[in-house]
Amino acid sequence: MPTWSSSQYLKFEDQRTRPAAELVARVPLEGPKRIVDIGCGPGNSTELLINRWPDASAVGFDTADTMLEAARERLPDIDFFKADAATWEPGPDVDLIYSNATFQWVPDHLTVLERLFKALKPGAVLAVQMPDNLTEPSHLAMEEAIQDGPWAEKLAAASLARDPLPGKAVYYDRLAPASTSFDIWHTIYTHALDGPAGIVEWVKGTGLRPYLDPLDETERTGYLAAYEARVAKHYPARIDGKVLLWFPRLFLVAVKGG
Q1: How many CB atoms lie within 10 A of CB 216?
Q2: Pick from 101, 94, 124, 107: which is nearest to 12 by CA?
Q3: Torsions phi, psi of 105, nearest 5?
């Protein structure tokens, strides 16, 4: 897994929390008693969950120590622990498994989602959001910039850190048969950022991590310059000098059948 920086991630907290809030709003539960936030990050999504259901017992887990530290500082009364979504098992009392922007990093995540959903009790909900942006210019430029310097060998496996998401019909066929209700949709968010450098700052906290982690400081500086130059070709300045980053995300909300 890539390394994560909670401070870098939270530079764009408002924009990153918006899909998390929209996913929370679509969960069809009135009073869940036990909620698990998978890939809780710095706790911004967990905070949304406890604000909607203040009487619920909520916990969150992540693989990154920096994210867990930030989450504990933000919500000191919540139990945040280190775990891997690929192997974690829900208890029989879980009413809601919620995950914002995590499962795209989990190998064979559809099989993992099937396993987690199968383990839920009837009436419980699985709610997941994942970025679906590997074919966007912001991410294609990451691959292109590999060829722009002496870091190509070190970054040979960087693009393997994350697989493209399957189509919506694949999720439907795998999860809907065990559901009493299954909702799946795409949303494309538009983020107005401060030029190509703003896009670099955005992806430095997430998608760019597999490309930066293998490099030393000098190589990172060179690679980021090459990446920003390629980004500038795809994202022209608008009338106010901002650039518009298109960001597709996939959502699914499934209610477990009996």
Answers
A1: 9
A2: 101
A3: -95, -5
Q: What angle do CA 192, 195, 200 make, to 5 degrees?
A: 95
Q: What is the 3-state secondary structure (H, E, C) of the chain?
A: CCCCCHHHHHHHHHHHHHHHHHHHHCCCCCCCCEEEEECCCCCHHHHHHHHHCCCCEEEEEECCHHHHHHHHHHCCCCEEEECCCCCCCCCCCCCEEEEECCHHHCCCHHHHHHHHHHHCCCCCEEEEEEECCCCCHHHHHHHHHHHHCCCCCCCCCHHHHCCCCCCHHHHHHHHHHHEEEEEEEEEEEEEEECHHHHHHHHHHCCCCHHHHCCCCHHHHHHHHHHHHHHHHHHCCCCCCCCEEEEEEEEEEEEEECC
Two tokens at 14? 């408002």
Q: Which residue has the tokens 């490099």?
A: 215
Contact 206, 136 (CB under 8 A): no
| Residue 29 CB neighbour total at 10 angstroms | 17
For residue range 114-156, list pLDDT tens digits in order: 999 999 999 999 999 999 999 999 999 999 999 999 999 999 8
Work out whether the CA dihedral 176, 179, 181, 187 comes out positive or negative. negative
Using CA atoms in the order 237, 239, 242, 243, what is the torsion angle rounded to 10 degrees? Answer: -40
**Strands 125-131, 243-256: parallel, antiparallel or unpaired by DSSP?**
antiparallel
Structural domains of the chain ordered from first start: 6-256 (3.40.50.150)
Question: Taking a C-beta distance cutoff of 8 angstroms, is the pair 174, 110 a contact?
Answer: yes
Radius of gyration for the alpha carbons in the chain, expressed in angstroms and rounded: 19
Say which residues have a Cβ less than 8 Å from residue 65's Cβ, sequence separation at least 6. 82
Q: Which tokens in the block code for residue 145?
A: 């910039």
Q: What is the pLDDT of residues 217-233, one digit of tens each?
A: 999 999 999 999 999 99
